Amino acid sequence: MLRYIALIISIVLQLVAVVVALRLTKVTKYKISWILISAGFVFMAFRYLIDLFQYMNRPRLEELVVLNDWISVLISIFIASGVIIIPEIFNYMRRAEHARKIAEKNVLNAIIETEERERKRFAKDLHDGLGPLLSTVKMSVSALMKYEKDESNLEIIKNTDHIINEAIKSIKEISNNLSPHVLTNFGLASAVKNFTDKINETRVIDITFKSNMYNQRFSTNIEVVLYRTICELVNNSLQHSNAKNIHINLFSDDSKIDLNYEDNGKGFDTHKVMQGGNRGTGLMNMISRVESVNGTFKFESKLKQGFKANFCINYTKRHGKT
């Protein structure tokens, strides 16, 4: 009786396996492998049916025993052939995954390039459009200042002139932040040095920047990604960490760029922040951008122990040393 139940269960399981294997033909390439394996399961179920028939109708028939042996041979052939082809399925899936990642990188690179073009256009419109208008207003106010004799009116004109000067200065700063001309004209290291010097002038935080890349240029995407990453890291330290010191090391050799960033702030749980929805958006954006230029990353932070970040980018020099 136990053998009878075992044979029934075996037949059912083989038929279920057939259904599963056939369903896999719809979602993977190299369908022939699943068809061969399905055929093997079908013959296996058929063999168990013969065993069940033999069990229920004794004595055993010699012809059915021989048939069972040949069915076993067929099962081995079908399943072995299917298994031999299966690695091609995984190779195909790996190729498809690789192609997907390349496509994602290309899309992200296109987004970065488009974003930078728009930043440059907007910065140019601000600088070349609104800047001259304010300069013209300043000239008119300065002319009024020369001829105004009333002290109260003169004070108003002087105040207006001061406000216009601040507006012109703000436009220049906004334009430069949107599209730093130093980055375009002099490269990544010079742009970062210019940015950190401006932060140091505020005396809010002390930033130490070291680099061996002042005489090197790289692809536009790499320079933009690393510059925006450094700006985002510094901004995070200023807003969230209560840090007093930041150390930035930016070095390159013949094949890669290493960016090491460290602050002495209050630190945080990096895993929790990156998994915490909007709170980890900045870090995730950094990671996506760095990965789009063949970069890797590592974050290290604990509460009250500061924050460290390392980014490594494999690159091809665009201009080499100038």
The ordered string of helix (H) and strand (E) elements is HHHHHHEEHEEHHEEE
Percent of residues in helices: 55-70%
The mean pLDDT is 79
So, the CATH homologous superfamily of the largest domain?
Answer: Histidine kinase-like ATPase, C-terminal domain
Identify the overall geometry: elongated
Class by alpha and beta content: alpha+beta
Distance linking N and C termini:
88 Å
CATH topology of the largest domain: Heat Shock Protein 90
Measured on Cα atoms, how large is the radius of gyration?
35 Å
Continuous helix count = 9
Beta-strand share of residues: 5-15%
Looking at the chains present, what oligomeric state does this protein adopt? Answer: single chain
Entry keywords:
322 residues, alpha+beta, Heat Shock Protein 90, 2 domains, 5-stranded mixed β-sheet, two-stranded antiparallel ribbon, 7 strands, 69% helix, elongated
Can you characterise this structure?
Helices cover 69% and strands 13% of the residues. It is α+β, with helices and mostly antiparallel strands. It folds into two domains: 2-107; 180-322, Heat Shock Protein 90, CATH 3.30.565.10. The strands form two sheets. It has a five-stranded mixed β-sheet with strand order 1-3-4-6-5. It has a two-stranded antiparallel sheet with strand order 2-7. Strand 5 and strand 6 (307-314) form a beta hairpin. The radius of gyration is 35 Å and the shape is elongated. 20% of the residues are buried. Residues 318-322 have low confidence and may be disordered.
